[in-house]
Design brief:
mainly alpha, ABC transporter involved in vitamin B12 uptake, BtuC, 15 helices, transmembrane helix, transmembrane
Length: 368
């Protein structure tokens, strides 16, 4: 059986998976007595038909780009990092400490410092599972998911007993100083031509896109990236070539954790302007689906992040303007993950069979 053409494997398989997920979602909406056409209309109008909707879609997509890239880097080293949620929460702690306790004269300097702090804290939280995997053989999936719960508990303790201002009931830090406030897209030159009203999407979007380029360069244009991908393809062959498994596991997970931690500059520093209890808001887990759908390539991750940003914002609009519950967006996300992840092989086999039948028909026609 011949393989699919490259363009079909990269573009057609995800598209067919997405269409199948949409069909099943439409059937679910029909089953609860609602109109699928009304649902898609509301989602499109509320997500991409005006600058307000785009502002929220891009805000969510920014977080998903960071966490999707985090999963991507680890995946190419054959490591399944599902601890992005905890790493993002610890990244938020780094942002909060940096913004609250260091005097920043301008947001540009504060952004550089907070980005470094977020990456450092996220990488540090990923370093422990990485070391356990490299030295003790502890499976990275088990340790990273356990560290998500440890991170959540640690953050609750710090917000309730250490960082919460006196007299405040809400488990959160104080608001960050005005000098650390990041400009939103409607305040940036060129972008303000399209975003005329206040939106939550901020300058962090540009950093996320920049990190996508950096990850592409790292994985496909550097010796380290080649070593990471070689180790991910075959650990035995990588060992034979002189590549250190310990070094690759540690470096890949440190980069992955750093990228996940950087997500915090979007929602902690950019939107909330303080550290809240659930600052990651599930973006660490969504990053897994984003990486899967994006075929673990930075370009695909950006496109998949936009899709999930659309689903998040569109789902919120469903809850506001229709009788369809907002939880429907979770159903749609689950279906997208199901078809792009668990059923990916089924879709690929189906398309391969169709392509083979088409090839056979062309050959028979040519022979005749």
């Amino acid at each position: 059986m011949e393989r699919l053409p490259r363009w079909a494997d990269v573009a057609l398989v995800p598209l067919v998976s997405l269409l199948l997920a949409a069909v099943i979602a439409a059937l679910v909406i029909l089953a609860i007595g609602q109109d699928p056409w009304e649902a898609i209309t509301v989602m499109v109008q509320g997500s991409i038909m005006d600058s307000y909707g785009w502002g929220y879609t891009l805000y969510y997509a920014t977080s998903f780009i960071f966490t999707g890239l985090a999963v991507t880097v680890a995946f190419h080293a054959s490591l399944f990092n599902i601890g992005g949620e905890g790493q993002a929460q610890l990244g938020g702690l780094g942002v909060a400490l940096c913004c609250l306790f260091l005097p920043w004269p301008h947001w540009t300097l504060a952004l550089i410092g907070a980005t470094c702090a977020a990456a450092l804290f996220g990488a540090a939280w990923a370093a422990i599972p990485a070391y356990l995997q490299a030295r003790r053989g502890s499976h990275i999936v088990i340790t990273t998911i356990m560290f998500n719960y440890i991170a959540a508990a640690l953050l609750i303790f710090l917000l309730v007993d250490v960082l919460r201002p006196a007299g405040q009931m809400d488990p959160a830090t104080a608001n960050f100083p005005e000098a650390t406030r990041l400009p939103t897209l409607n305040e940036l030159p060129v972008f303000n031509l399209f975003f005329t009203s206040n939106v939550p999407a901020n300058v962090t979007l540009l950093i996320a896109l920049g990190m996508a380029v950096v990850v592409w360069l790292l994985l496909w244009r550097t010796r380290l990236g080649y070593a990471i991908r070689a180790f991910g393809k075959s650990e035995a062959a990588a060992r034979y070539a002189g590549i250190s498994p310990f070094t690759i596991i540690m470096v890949a997970m440190l980069i992955s954790g750093g990228l996940a931690g950087m997500m915090a500059i979007n929602n902690v520093m950019g939107e909330a302007e303080r550290l809240l209890q659930n600052s990651a808001s599930g973006a660490g887990f969504i990053g897994i689906a984003v990486a899967l759908m994006g075929r673990n390539h930075p370009v695909g991750v950006v496109l998949a992040a936009l899709l999930f940003g659309f689903l998040f914002q569109g789902g919120a609009e469903l809850g506001l303007w229709t009788k369809i519950p907002i939880e429907m967006r979770t159903v749609v996300q689950g279906l997208v993950i199901l078809f792009t992840g668990a059923l990916d092989v089924m879709v690929r086999m189906l398309l391969t069979r169709i392509f083979n039948l088409f090839r056979a028909g062309r050959m028979a026609k040519g022979a005749a």
